[in-house]
Amino acid sequence: MDGSGLRVAPRRVRVVGAGLSGAVVARALADAGHQVTVQDERPHVAGNCHTARDPATGVMVHVYGPHIFHTANPEVWAYVNRFAEMVPFRHRVKAVAGGQVYSLPINLHTINQLFGRAMSPAEARAFLRARCETGEEAPRSFEDQALRLVGQTIYTTFFRGYTRKQWGVDPDQLPASILKRLPLRFDYDDAYFDHPHQALPRDGYTAMVARILDHPGIRLRLGQPFRGRLPQDADHLVYTGPLDRYFDRDLGPLGYRTLDFERFEGPGDVQGTAVVNYCDEDVPHTRITEHRHFSPWEGRVQGASPCFREYSRACGPNDIPYYPLRLLDDRRRLGQYSERAAAERDVTFVGRLGTYAYLDMDRAIERALDTARAINLAWAQEGKP
Ligand code: FAD
Ligand code: UDP
């Protein structure tokens, strides 16, 4: 039985990917009485949310880049609290541009500092409005959206260079939705996210995902790449790997960005906060993360503090896909791959890679829970006389 109260004959399920999406689907199906085998090619669970202690210093590191949990969804918030002790955390990001340090997302302090003013919220709104472009139709691109929302000076200082480094293309080719992720504030609130629940798991994301997978109905196989189609020993396949890879990229690859991390360490506090963005295009990295600031409850680090410079580049066939690019060509191919995915019998595609969607962790959990419910419902209906 699952949460919906449906009684379904047990099935054998193979889940490809032990990231958040795969783990959440696996757990929901195991809770409903099915036998689940989860397989991942990496030697660890948690996918890109993986956390591990830095061998040299013992600091908990977000191995594939900084991850802050935030959500407005009460079901998802209750879910993560079942499997981890979530410690409230307000993410605050600084940005270096033109030799100065600003606060992000763009707020009243950023605006006043950049323009050398002391404006009130109303004055700042009017000031920016006078500098923004206008348009009747929906914004065509990231650049269009930025010029309408914040105007040329803020766009050039904080967004154009960073975005070109991060995405490898001009912002006029990127969807406006990428910029919509960031709030614009006319007060001094400098929290990076707006959601009511913002936290980090005390023992890291990997411990949380390991607990999600800890169920007698789940078998875990790590270090095993999946190839091919529905395995013979399974009735159903849940695939959370890259959608194009499942089809051997035979319609061409979907574009992704991958990341390289360059470790360095300094004594004590290196940069005074967890994340500093570097917005100038002539600085090759996008940001530096100092991970000790993600676990302030562990106390001050006396010795070295590990930091990682982050560089973004085009993703090759053997690189780890981090960010779905979703350019025009990608979206056309996505349509074709999605049609084929829908026609696959007994296979469900889910997750950031499986659906080629820019999903935060909370959305990944939400979709995984919905997917598991839909699978179980379909089986219940099949079983009806
Ligand atoms: P993944 O984590 O990518 O997991 C997929 C798993 O499938 C991987 O373990 C992979 O090894 C495995 N796999 C793939 N193909 C195969 C195969 N053929 N055979 C076997 N195994 C396979 N979200 C937030 O909410 N807050 C943040 O601050 C945040 N920061 C982020 C920062 C970065 C740099 C990135 C890249 C993402 C960030 N996210 C953040 C998003 C977050 O990482 C995703 O929401 C989450 O990882 C999605 O989980 P997933 O299981 O769908 O995918
Ligand atoms: N961005 C930027 N400058 C910054 C921070 C963000 O130009 O200092 C842009 C960039 O294109 C990024 C997008 O805003 O991809 C969304 O920001 P977010 O912090 O959500 O980045 P992501 O989660 O994609 O790393």
From TrEMBL:
Gene3D superfamilies registered for this protein in UniProt: NAD(P)-binding Rossmann-like Domain
Q: Which SUPFAM superfamilies match?
A: FAD-linked reductases, C-terminal domain (SSF54373), Nucleotide-binding domain (SSF51971)
- Which GO terms label this protein's molecular function in UniProt? flavin adenine dinucleotide binding; UDP-galactopyranose mutase activity
Q: Which GO terms describe its cellular component?
A: cytosol
Write down the Pfam families for this protein, in alphabetical order.
GLF (PF03275), NAD_binding_8 (PF13450)
Q: What are the residue boundaries of the UDP-galactopyranose mutase C-terminal domain, all occurrences included?
A: 158-358
- State the name under which the record lists this protein: NAD(P)-binding protein
